[in-house]
Amino acid sequence: MTGLLDYFNLPITGIDVSLYMCRYDRDRDGRLKYSEFCDSFLPIDPFHASLLAKKAPLNISNTVRKDLLFYPETKDLLVNCWRLHFDHEREAERVRQHFKSSYTTFDHFQCFKLLDTKQDSYLDT
Q: What's the pLDDT at 27?
């Protein structure tokens, strides 16, 4: 994974990768399967997720230059998405550590309900 992120020139730490893997490596084998990777990038809403799921993967040979795989705009969007992932995981870990050190018991469900102001099972901004 770090080879890919190096290609995108993302300045990340081992902790960033560890936090990301803790969230998306469901079987905890230390490797990110394609389905686990997709879970981290596909939209949650069924309509947009189904649109993306219908797209066929490209059959690209190993001889294609990596810099030709993405349009510059697509690469920028993907890099920004990775940054958001890592920023989110760092912030979530900061909150976990804060609550872990501040309280002996923490009810995740009650916290989620507090943040789900519209009561639609999504965290609201």
A: 92
Would you list the domain boundaries of the chain?
2-115
CA atoms of 77 and 108, how far apart (whole Å): 31
Q: For all residues of the chain together, what is the average pLDDT?
A: 80
pTM value is: 0.62
And the tokens for 42? 């596909």
Place of tokens 């009650």: 110
Distance CA 91, CA 46 (A): 27
Which one, of 23, 24, 2, lies nearest residue 13 by Cα?
A: 2
